[in-house]
Amino acid sequence: MGKRDTDTDDDYNFVDVEDDDEDDGGDGLAFDFLTPQESSKPYTVSEINSGIAQILEERNTLVWVEGELSGWKRYSSGHCYFKLKDERSQIPGVMWKSAAVKLNFNPSDGMAVFAIASIGVYEKAGYYQLSVHRLMPAGAGAQSLAFERLKAKLLKEGLFDEARKRPLPRSVSTLGVVTSKNGAALWDIVRVAAKRAPQTDIVVADTPVQGDTAAEKIARAIRMMNDFGGIDVMIVGRGGGSAEDLSAFNEEAVARAIYDSEIPIISAVGHEIDFTIADFVADARAPTPSAAAEAALPDTADGRRYFEQCSSRFAVGINRYFAEINGRVNDIKYSKALTRPLRMLAEAERSLDEAGGRICQSIKSMITTSDMRLISVAGRLNSLSPLAVLGRGYCVVTDGGGTTVKSVSGVEVGDIVSIRLVDGTAGAEIKSKY
Asked: Which of 18, 133, 135, 160 is the most exposed place for a label (fewest CB within 10 A)?
């Protein structure tokens, strides 16, 4: 067996399998063979095979090869071995299990196929071989390859990102449909709309859905729907058909028109097993046009049931509310305020008199208590008053400036002082000091 290659991404680099006379010198390769004059010893066979393998595998480039299968055999390990040949040559090939499990057809001898492969060397046996990563029937190979290349390109640009996809509106008054007016898809959509939401307006952009010019016309119809305005959601699609019939929906023009649409779009192309580029870009994908109409239009029968449930709950709530109001009115109607108003007035006046008496008694008690506290405080203040001291025969002497004389040293003989007694003031002259 040769060296096993790992799986590769869908974003391939393709080269033509042709003779290239401009690059045959091996410049830049990691392995260079020496001439007999330059080498000090001969190469082993293994070294020759290893060197050739290194030269072939250095660039690790994928090639696109067309040929006829010969000697196809799948082993219990899951690996497949075969030859690809044309009228003049043949190349051994291997398809490892990780790639073989992705085959969607049954290869057989004599089948014309396209292969995406890398070139390697089976060093043990000394021959080069193709390590095939993807195998397609030649009839559908070019179309499948174009699909994969465009898918990889748009995926890289972010046209398939789930984050940018918009939810479908819950209420639809106007539905846009981009399809052929002569196709079964339109009538399937109309039939579903008539059953589920007959009040919905349907605006149809008639366009071819297959043929060489279909893609551009579909893209133009999508843009016209956006310019028309008032469309809540749009269905873009057609009924079932062959891969060639659906190919318009695998074109870049349609993908970009869907991506640029301001109206949410449901892609409904072919049957449930069919997938197109339009499905990956659209905000939602439906397996059939009928399913797209069901996804776009809520069933009015469900709406009626929901309305009836809401109406029933509303009626129960209203009845409960008015029952409570009626109970309150009866309570007021039979209350004392309405049945015995004079008695209630007399009782209120009596309560007022009693409250007034209690208030007057409380005020009198407060005044008496305050008077007693005032008398007590006045007595204490009087006992501390200087006048009380003077009444007991003491006096206060101040000098000419009004300053109290507290010591003999504060006056001199001949000074005039004032003497404050209990009932007045007398002047005096200091005659002597002791």
From this structure: 18
Q: How confident is the model at residue 49 (pLDDT cuts 50, 70, 90)?
A: low
Q: Looking at this protein, which amino acid is placed at residue 434?
A: Y
User: Mean pLDDT, the chain, as a whole number?
Assistant: 81
Q: Please give the model's pTM, rounded to 2 decimal places.
A: 0.45
Question: What letters, b where the CB count within 10 A reaches 16 and e where it falls short, cover 97-118?
Answer: eebbeeeeeebeeebebbbbbb
Measure the CA–CA gap between 372 and 324, rounded to whole angstroms: 60
Question: Are 134 and 116 contacting, i.e. CB atoms less than 8 angstroms apart?
Answer: yes
Q: H-type helices in 131-270, by residue range?
A: 138-157, 184-196, 214-228, 252-260
SS3 readout for 190-219: HHHHHHHCCCCEEEEEECCCCCCCHHHHHH
| 298 has pLDDT over 90 | no
Domain extent listing, the chain = 14-156, 165-298, 302-334, 338-381, 388-429
Please check whether the two domains, 14-156 and 165-298, share a CATH topology.
Answer: no
Q: In this predicted model, which residue has the larger pLDDT, 251 or 317?
A: 251
Classify 14-156 by CATH class.
mainly beta
**Phi, psi at residue 358, to the nearest 5°?**
-65, -35
Query: For 101-147, where are the E strands, in sequence order?
Result: 112-122, 127-137
* CATH superfamily, region 165-298: Hypothetical protein af1403; domain 2 (3.40.50.10550)
pLDDT digit string, tens, across residues 194-248: 988 888 999 999 999 998 899 999 999 999 999 998 999 999 999 888 777 888 9
Closest CA to 149 of 116, 181, 185: 116
